[in-house]
Amino acid sequence: MSGYGIFNRPGETPRVGFREGGTVFDLSGLDDVFRAPSLNAFMAEGQTAWAEARARVSEGTPVPAAEVELHLPFEVADYIDFYSSLEHATNLGKLFRPGAEPLLPNWRHLPVGYHGRAGTIVVSGTPIRRPHGQSKPPDADAPAFGPSRRLDIELELGFVIGASSRLGEPVAVDSALEHVFGVVLVNDWSARDIQAWEYQPLGPFLGKSFATSISPWIVPLEALEPHRVAARPQDPEPLPYLRTDEDWALDIELEVALAPERGEETVVSRTNARGLYWTAPQQLAHATVNGTNVRPGDLYASGTISGAEPGTAGSLLELTWGGRDPLALTGGGRRSFLEDGDSAILRGRAGAVSLGEVRGRILPSV
Predict the structure, then answer these.
(1) Exposed, middle or buried, 361 (CB in 10 Å: 0-12/13-18/19+)?
(2) Which domain, by its residues, includes 19?
(3) What is the pLDDT averaged over residues 241-266?
């Protein structure tokens, strides 16, 4: 594990640390910016300051990682969730619009996304309350209100913005990642029954906005540099503002595990982020091409990461094909969607660089 986060020991004030393996280096003695209870001020300083700090992290006071409490590592400014996996978009098109073309006409021309709710982003380990909303099964005459019965996870990567840009000046695709401080794992919890009823014509709303969990340590983009690989081919060729000759897919191995209350953990999916159709620079370039600015603490999530082979999907909706094919759990039991008391655990690794995990346990509705 290598990354920046916010930590404290019992009775102490939250502050910035850098985790390396089983040790957290307390950076608060190195600079005033590290005494803050969020990373935003440090992230705003830009690439030169990031490189200088990274070279000095071992000068911090070592603290055993097992002794610390972790917090949301940054104050989330804005949140955009993309839809960048070809396999995921195709699967959901087949499930939500059976008999129609799975991909909508715009999908291969631009990174589709929506603005999420920054205020409900929580750090790993935060319990997730089962949400309420409207849903309408296909055979029902009218919608009903109640707790979601098709609660799901979404396995994603999140790119955290550090350096800001100016309003009215788009961020060019080849300089987009100059603004990215680092990467986190993201679980964008999804109430599929609520989502299916509400999402047309404006897209996700209550089915997504109740909670999004992120990992507590932000892995610096620099640490992932050796794991950049060529992105998959894009057909048709994107418009000029989305074209780049750089290798900006990331070879990050990912997995999803489920654990029922007082039960054993079962890994239900393994996949890799290198298969995403749209890359992070393209996402950022498209998000700003209209002139919108980026700010420290903006979070850009990839959307669910799914592969083409069985057992490589990043959501239960796909893994069980809409609940038709429940998953068998270690020690007995089956799951189509999450039940109360279940924990979902997402993990990531790029070679020797661990992205850690993001986990959450489902609480009953109230």
Answers:
(1) middle
(2) 2-71
(3) 96
